[in-house]
Each structure stands twice: as structure tokens, then as C-alpha cells.
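Dear colleagues,

As part of the handover before I leave the project, I'm documenting each prediction I ran so the next person doesn't have to rerun anything. This entry is a single chain, and its sequence is reproduced below.
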Amino acid sequence: MTTSFLRLPLIALSGLVLLGACSDPEKTGRFLLDPPTQGVRVANRLGTAELKDVSLPEYAANQEVAFQTQDGAVRSNPESLWADTPSRAFTTTLARAISDVSGATVIGEPWPLAEPPARVLEVRVERALAQTDNIYRLSGRYFVSDDGLKGNGANQARSFDIRVPMTEATPAATATAASQAIAQLAQQIATLSGPGSTIATQQPAAADAFDLPPLF
């Protein structure tokens, strides 16, 4: 009886030790999006712009850092995480990078200033992945709406396909390459460049369509 009684606490204690080892916080890496400082400056073509929350593919919106394996599958590891919610991190980082490279005032939604923005910017990412060829690929489309300019705007609908070589297939290298890709995307958006089209605003904003002359 005494031997069995003593054995139970020892088994429970060993279970706690194993559980502690599995949840060791030092084994979990958290990686930041941190675009490098760009040595170039471009003209301010956006003025003030509200950046909508960036749309990411499901695997890229997940907290785990995704990568592609030789069989074509997209996989991830629970010990390699993004330091912030990916959509929020991508949105705030891109807004800051566009502002830094051009001098424009680009802020992620919701717009915090009393004066409304002149433009609305939307980015829809179709791929954001460390591929099997050690290339980080960031592709998709972006849209700039000038509806706030009441008939005098030029709306943009353009695509991007950015590829950044990776020195190694690790989560840290993925984070570095993703940061560099965002810096390139920021410069492309700031200059309104890339394949696509410019669509002139043909009529005032919808809210003005119902304005009636004063009654006398």
C-alpha cells in the first residue's frame, strides 16, 4: 500500500515536467515584419489615403509562419509564429512604408483624423509565401479610389508580383524576405505603377447625386 501510494505522486510529477517541457516559451519564435529603410524617395502622389485592412490568403493570415514543401503543400510549425496578427501587421507596416518613401499620409483604417482622406487604398494579396525555390513571392492587386475628389479623380486598378530571393529556408529568412517585399510594394503603390489601368471618375460621389437646389 505504501509503495503504491508513493508511486502516484511521482507519476503525476513526471507528467507535469513533460508538460512544462512541451510548453517551453523559449522554443517558440515570434517574427516581426520590419521593412528596411529605403534609400530612395519618390513624389507624393497619394496625399492622404486610408488603407483598408489588407486581405491575405488564409494560410498567410494564420499566426504560424507558412512555407511550401517539395510536394507543393503549404505547411507551418506551431513553434514559428508572427509576432502580431498578420493582417494587422501587414496593414500597419505597409502604410508606414508608403508614407516613409513618399511623404504621403497613409493610415490604416479606421481613419483617425477629422479631415477625411483624399483617397482610399485597398490591397488584396493573392500569394504571400516562401516557395520551394527559396523565393518569397508576394503577388496580388491594389486599388486606389479617388471618389472623394468629386469627379476629378483618377482611380487605379493595378497588379503586383514581387519576388525576393531567400538566403535559407527558415522562418527568420521568410520574415526578412517578406519585409523586403513589403518595402518594394510600398514603392510601387506610392508611384502608382504596375500592370493595370487608370479609370477616370466620371461623376461626383453618390452622396452628391441626391443634392437638390434650395426651395424658395
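The chain has one domain: 47-201. The CA atoms of residues 24 and 79 lie 10 Å apart.

All the best with the project,
I.
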